[in-house]
Amino acid sequence: MALEVKFGVSTWLWTSPFSKEALSLLPKIKEFGYDVVEIPVEDPALIKINEVKQALTDNGLEAVICGAFGTSRDLTNEDPSFHKTSFDYLDSCFEIAAGLGTKFVAGPMYSAVGKARLISAEQKKVEWDRAVSNLRIVCQNARKSGLDIALETLNRFETDLINTCEELMQLIADINEPEAKVILDGFHMNIEEPDVEAAIRRAGDKLIHLQVSENYRGTPGTGQTRWDAYKRGLEAINYKGVISIESFTPEVKELAGAVCIWKPLVPSQDGFAKEGLQFLKKWAAE
Fold first, then answer.
1. How high is the pLDDT of residue 259?
2. What Gene3D superfamilies does the database record attribute to this sequence (predicted)?
3. Helix axis angle, 121-144 to 165-175, nearest 10°
4. What are phi and psi of 250, to 5 degrees?
């Protein structure tokens, strides 16, 4: 059966960080046929809520807000100053999300991206418990703005804390706050999940956002992804959220280095966006 979903694309496909200049992408994103623009918040000070809101309205687009969690934004760090930095940053993200009329802030906000180490079970438990207690605070802060948080699994090369949906659902159970929900990213799932359909079913009604690209971060439909399994899983949970393409431009060196994209994945980023959406619309309608 056809999926009743909206389609989005991350501005990371073209640029970083998101700022006023990125608003020039919105007419193109709308022209390609997207419903939603995914806005990564690297520096909240660069995002003027009223300007972004007007640009979204002018182009008939909705927004999804995703966080970016570098080394200073780490809720599992032993130094509480890192927790305060994370809380302050996420509060800014909540302000942006509420101002743009979105319903959640998404991302792997439990730890700094790239924190991937072989540690003892005892140390893992300490950091897990820190993530749980700090994410309870994050949930309570989100609640003040009427928002949820969507927590994301990452592959083993980017975090040692949460790699699978099963682990994520355990974290959410331990947090035990109604605002704690799920975002899944097909790139990470293709590395870590033995069965993506089962993972999506496990997330169930907690799944409120889905990011996709190919197994190599390329254009959907050009790689080895088991799109049939994704479809069955999403149908099984009656998913009606956004399916958003997330990949990155090699032209922004800091971003490309962070996600290990050493060369262009496609001849054109615009082509990536157009062809990826064409594939996804056909796949969702089948």
1. 87
2. Divalent-metal-dependent TIM barrel enzymes (3.20.20.150)
3. 60
4. -75, -5
Structurally, the chain folds into a number of domains equal to: 1
Query: Does 190 fall in a domain?
Result: yes
Instruction: Give helix 269-285 / helix 227-236 axis angle, nearest 10°.
Output: 50
What integer pLDDT is reported at residue 258 of this predicted model? 87
Q: What is the CATH number of the domain that holds 227?
A: 3.20.20.150
* φ, ψ dihedrals at 218, nearest 5°: -90, -170
Q: Nearest to residue 78, comparing CAs of 123, 38, 34?
A: 123
Using the predicted structure, report yes or no on whether residue 4 has a pLDDT greater than 90: yes
More confident residue, 199 or 259: 199
- Nearest in space to 239 (alpha carbons), one of 176, 155, 162, 181: 181
pTM over the 0.85 mark: yes
Domain of residue 207, residue span:
6-285
Residue with the two structure tokens 């809720």: 75
- Give the C-alpha distances (Å, rounded to integers) separating 62 from 41, 53, 98, 170: 16, 9, 13, 31
pLDDT of residue 72: 97
Q: Average of pLDDT values for 241-252?
A: 95
Asked, for residue 18, whether it belongs to a domain, the answer is yes
152 near 107, Cβ under 8 Å?
A: yes
**Backbone phi and psi for residue 114, each to the nearest 5 degrees, phi listed first:** 95, -5
Distance CA 60, CA 62 (A): 7
152-188 pLDDT, tens per residue?
999 999 999 999 999 999 999 999 999 999 999 999 9
Task: Show the tokens assigned to 74.
Answer: 């780490």
Q: Are 100 and 53 in contact (CB under 8 A)?
A: yes
What average pLDDT is seen over the chain? 97
Residue 258 and residue 286: Cα distance in Å, rounded?
Answer: 36
Spatial separation of the C-alpha atoms in residues 185 and 225, rounded to whole Å:
12
Q: Where are the alpha helices (DSSP H) in 7-101?
A: 26-32, 49-59, 80-99
Q: How many residues does the chain have?
A: 286
